Amino acid sequence: MTFFSFFNILRLMRKSASGQALLVVLLILGVALTTGLSLVARLTTDISISEDEVSSGQAFEAAEAGVEEALRALEAGENTPENLSLSPGGTEANVTISVEELSGEQAIKTIHSGEAATFWLNSFSLAGEDFPSYKEGEETKTLSYTGERKVELCWKGTDKLEAAVYYQEGSDYKVARYYLDSTGSCPLEDENDGQKAELDFTDIATAITNVKFINVRFYGDANETVTVAMAGVGDNLPRQGTIITSEATVNNVARQIVISRGWPVPPSFFDFALFSGGALAK
Questions:
Q1: Global confidence as pTM
Q2: CATH number of the domain that residue 155 is part of
Q3: What pLDDT, on a 0 to 100 scale, did the predictor assign at position 12?
């Protein structure tokens, strides 16, 4: 082997070692770059999620504030504001409030054994004011049922139901009780049919506008429930309350709260209490 050949071999070996080192360096840089980009992406995602969670909490608080403002306005007999601008946690929140009529399928009620569901027909005078009443624009509205002297009751579950019809006769308030038997079927809540009965109170000797409300009470086993709904015959039942929807947006994150608020109803013992305008005698 000549000296020139030996020199060429050494030069080739040095080039080969240099190429391998460069390849190793490039691989290490590639792995480091991929790991770094992954960490940056993960960090960015975590920050975004954290910011969204904070915004979501602030939007929920703002939506709750919208519900409270709507309830306050209803209690005060004022018009409910449609938009609010709040600053929960120092962040601007836009709140949209809507108030709708609670009626029809939205007035379906689920009751447990021993409980009652109240359906209103007409307002009456309470402490010199009409009750229930509500604001519609600048006008105060009362409840009025002008249909036939009947209503239609639908329910899903057992048939151990009693309907107590409260009405006014002259200056006195009275109650008539009916025990319901199924006379047909009607759709309730889903595709399955519920039971149906027509509640006829033509035997009550007073105008239909003097029939104030109906308590539907369920007598069943301790763990039983029944789902009930009521419809007018010849006329729709009047408004059974209010649905309040409050939606707040904070930094493009929106949260919505929907509540249904019925009219105040008598306490559960009302159907069993004995009232007297004077002294009781044995």
A1: 0.72
A2: 2.60.120
A3: 53
